[in-house]
Amino acid sequence: MKSEHQVPVVGLALGSGSARGWSHIGIILELEEMGIRPQVVAGTSVGALVGGVYVAGQLREFADWVRKLSVRDVVGLMDFTFSGGFVKGERLFGFFNEQHANPNIEDLAQRFVSVATEMKSGREIWITRGPVWAAARASCAIPGLFTPVKHNERWMLDGGLVNPVPVSACRALGADVVIAVNLNTQLIGSHMSAASRLEAQREAGEEERRDEKNRSFWHKVVTYLQSSSGDTPSFFDAVASSVNIMQDRLTRSRMAGDPPEVTLQPRLEDFALMDFHRADEAINEGRRLVRAHEAEIRAWTGVAAGGAAAAAPAAGASPPA
Q1: 178: β partners
Q2: Which one-letter DSSP state was computed for residue 304?
Q3: Exposed, middle or buried: residue 174 (CB in 10 Å: 0-12, 13-18, 19+)?
Q4: Is residue 283 within 8 Å of residue 22, measured between CB atoms?
Q5: Whole-model pTM?
Q6: pLDDT exceeding 90 applies to what percent of the chain?
Q7: Does residue 316 have a pLDDT over 60?
Q8: Which residues pair with 42 in a beta bridge?
């Protein structure tokens, strides 16, 4: 049992949520600036991606890159297919592997776990060894969007199918206090954002005007799949709504049984599944959210302003108001 003044082991549970996951970047950067460096990081889906970048020591460079992404850049990183999903992800993760170091998880200073779902059995799989990028990719396979990936001879699906906000994984790796980031609140009924539709239409129009004959086939496909007719939802609308409903219900159930000490819920209701080009908005929201909860976070983690240790609430106590 920890003494009253001993600083607890802090865990960070980074949840699934596709493009909304860029808010994880702002949350981590703001925590670091507050002097709070989680010793345990657990990630699901995009949370595994951002968490992997973080524990590999490359988050600031990664943040600079995603802030520059346009709709055209995002489409350019997608290797489209109709086999097992809409995007293979090999081009995207291959790019990450080329641009960033890929250390083994067991060699990292922080403890890290990527949560995936075994396709054959439906079991929740915790990946705590091997290359960071392979672990993150195994967790990023949103049904209908990203294809399954083979990891250690087993086919893996998105970790959000079984554990959208991996609080339990943080506990298992030794966290006394867990800061959880839940990206799946207030999203039921949300489809593709109006901002995303307008941007996609503008990009498509520019592309068409530049070179109609040589216009990318896949750009046409993306434009078609993200468009809707009247009240009829688009392909991406249907996928996004299905994922949102499933993850919202599962998140409520899992977090009720294993509540974190601090829950952060970014307000990104207008973000669509593939709004990866809107990183600035998401990162800024992550930073804002941490600042709004600063007193609560400092009380639980035992880190006072200026870096001095402070007494954390006793085990079982309620977070401070």
Answers
A1: 11
A2: -
A3: exposed
A4: yes
A5: 0.80
A6: 47
A7: no
A8: 13, 113
Q: What gap in Å lies between CA 7 and CA 280, rounded to an integer?
A: 33
Give the tens place of pLDDT for each residue, 21-43: 999 999 999 999 999 999 999 99
CA-CA distance, 224 to 246, in Å (whole number)? 25
pLDDT tens-digit readout, 211-231: 444 445 445 445 545 555 556
- Sequence-distant (6+) residues with CB within 8 A of 240 are 18, 190, 191, 192, 272, 273
Residue 103 vs residues 29, 54, 98, 132, 170: alpha-carbon distances, Å:
21, 12, 13, 6, 20
HEC per residue, 163-179: CCCCHHHHHHCCCCEEE
Active site residues: 45, 158
Q: How far is CA 149 from the centre of its chain?
A: 18
* pLDDT single digits (tens) 5-25: 578 999 999 999 888 999 999
Identify the burial level of 94 via C-beta atoms within 10 angstroms of its C-beta, where 0-12 means exposed, 13-18 middle and 19 or more buried.
middle
* Contact partners, residue 238, CB within 8 Å, separation at least 6: none
- How far from 31 is each of 40, 48, 131, 174, CA to CA, in Å? 14, 18, 25, 19
**183 in Cβ contact with 21 (< 8 Å):** yes
Beta bridge partners of 12: 41, 179
Written in H, E and C, the secondary structure of 15-76 is CCCHHHHHHHHHHHHHHHHCCCCCCEEEEECHHHHHHHHHHCCCHHHHHHHHHCCCHHHHHH
